[in-house]
Structures are given as structure tokens and as C-alpha cells.
Amino acid sequence: MISTRRKPREQVRTRLGRTQEAARHGAEIALRRASVTADRIRPVAAERVLVARGWGAPRIRRAAQYVETGLAPRVSSFLSGLAHRVEPPGRDRPRRGAVVALVGAVAAVGVAGAVVTRRSVTGGSDDASEEATSADSMTVSGADVDERASSRR
Description:
Blueprint: H1 9-86, H2 96-121, H3 127-137, H4 142-152
């Protein structure tokens, strides 16, 4: 037959208290031993870390150079080729040549319209061209300058 009697609460509490005290005592001992061990190991570990860094740095540098010069161009060309294969075929768009020709024609018509408008504003006379001709005639050539300089002496 199964007994349903329980132990008195005082007994349970004292056992639990003793177990907790033993755990605290064990933790204190482990902490003291770990700190002593850490103090002994710290200088040796620091030296070994420096040795490991010295050993690893050239290898990491070599790996970086390989990735930069050997692997990266291959990966880049692979991805570029893959992009060309994955890209869907282009839609039928109007040719750029036709668009450029249309823009050029519109620009030419605009320039011609501006010239016609300017001529109509100035009254259709060529006063501006006469002024330009008279200004051109006043330009002195190199021979004229030499003649004037010799006549002043």
C-alpha cells in the first residue's frame, strides 16, 4: 500500500537550508580557485594570443589578396552572365535614332522661327548687318599697323 504521509515541514526546510549552504560554500571555493588560476594563466594566455595573431595575420592577408585578384573577378563575371540569362527579353520600344531626329527637327524649326521673329522685329532691314560690315572694315590688318608705325617715326 502507498503511504500518503508527508515529512514534517521543519525537516524539509532544514534539509533545503543545509543544501543551499553547501552550494554557497562550494561556489565560494570554486570562485577563489578560479581567480587564482586566472591570475596565473592571464600572462601566458596574452602571449599566446599575440603569437596566434602573428601567425594568422599573413594568412588572412593572403586570403584577402586571393579574393580580390582571383575570386572576385570570377564571381563578378559569373553574376554578370547570370544576370544576362535571367533578364527577360526587351519590349519593342521606338528606336532612339527616330527620337533624336525628331528632337533635332523641332530644334531646327525653333531656331528658324527665332531668326524670322528677330528679322520681323528689326523691321526687315539689314541695319545690323551694315553695322557689322562697317565694324569689320574698321579692323586693322597687320600690314596697316606696320605702315602707321613707320609713318610716325
